[in-house]
Amino acid sequence: QSESAAASKAAGCGCGNPERAAVVENAEPGPVPAEPAVKYSRGANGRALLYPLPYLYFMMVLVPGGAFLMGTDDPGIPADGESPQRLVYVDSFYMDTHEVTNRQFQMFVNATGYVTEAEKFGDSFVFEGILSDKVKKEITQAVAAAPWWLPVKGANWKHPEGLGSSITDRLDHPVLHVSWTDARTYCSWLDKRLPTEAEWECACRGGLKDRLYPWGNKLNPKGKHYANLWQGDFPNYNTGEDGFVKTSPVMSFPPNGFGLYDIVGNVWEWTSDWWTVHHSAENQSNPTGPQSGNDKVKKGGSYMCHKSYCYRYRCAARSQNTPDSSASNLGFRCVSGGTVT
Ligand SMILES: *[C@@H]1O[C@H](CO)[C@@H](O)[C@H](O)[C@H]1NC(C)=O
Ligand SMILES: *[C@@H]1O[C@H](CO)[C@@H](O)[C@H](O)[C@H]1NC(C)=O
Ligand SMILES: [Ca+2]
Ligand SMILES: [Ca+2]
């Protein structure tokens, strides 16, 4: 990968592309974000859970198939391959209403004994802004192009900020530190699969045509927040105006037109496609991306995305990671049905 591509990746995405390899010695830890100024509470943004929690484990909605406009001719980040806009047809499929949660992943691990890649590697990438000083002091390496990513020993889905942290107080938050392979294995366990990028983007748009966000073109209609993103100055200060400086419990924000929650924001979501920035402008039917590649496509942005660094909480936006990568802002959801050939 060229130096300029690496630089544009770093500059373009505060959400970052933490990948194994490419580390630099002695990175200075940055300032710690202050506590959130909670202007919008969960109550104001969200709604009470309508279903008993066990039912949520497997809750999916039908995403009606048909033709939709994928990508954009007005790319927010041209280098990401958001263009050209093209007419894409997908068959109907079912999609998890929300990101896979810690509780769901725990059920999977309890049932199967599965060990994630981050557990095997012994570390995973954590945004330094959410680490304790004690953990930060012990780290001497970071990602060269994105120094806010620190490889934390012992960080994995059970210990999202490393040893000493746990998920017991956030079982209904999205699971973190799962690689593409981990995500695919979880979905297969439930006879589901990861969505193709086309399916994911069709789902994101919620039936609206050629809009920036799942709910329209305005980021904060009527002054409300519709997704868990970053407010303030990335990476130094997150005001938490949307109610959350880290992940939020799934379904804390309103759903889109298809009944899908947090389809942008909260955590990035893995798709099944290999990454390329070159797309045909021709009409396509149930596209599945390139036959092979180095990176997998992730969609939707995360709680770390701010327009200044990571304008990637749009449906057409995209980014990538190697399939063995894992981080504190990357999760997934599964689909079933549909057509992939
Ligand atoms: C998984 O097993 C642990 C240990 O037995 C238990 O505490 C936990 O509640 C189980 N999780 C789920 C979601 O069933
Ligand atoms: C793509 O499909 C649309 C709608 O069916 C049609 O109007 C257009 O001519 C098609 N374009 C190509 C290049 O086939
Ligand atoms: Ca937020
Ligand atoms: Ca998401």
UniProtKB/TrEMBL annotation:
GO MF, one example: formylglycine-generating oxidase activity
Compartments, as annotated in UniProt: Endoplasmic reticulum lumen
Species this protein is from: Tetraodon nigroviridis
Predominant cellular place of this UniProt entry's protein: endoplasmic reticulum
Limits of the Sulfatase-modifying factor enzyme-like domain: 60-335
GO CC, any one term: endoplasmic reticulum lumen
Spans traversing the lipid bilayer: 49-70
Recorded family membership: Belongs to the sulfatase-modifying factor family.
Superkingdom assignment: Eukaryota
Lineage: Eukaryota, Metazoa, Chordata, Craniata, Vertebrata
Protein name per its UniProtKB record: Sulfatase modifying factor 1
PANTHER family documented for this protein: FORMYLGLYCINE-GENERATING ENZYME, SULFATASE MODIFYING FACTOR 1, 2
UniProtKB keywords: Membrane, Transmembrane, Transmembrane helix
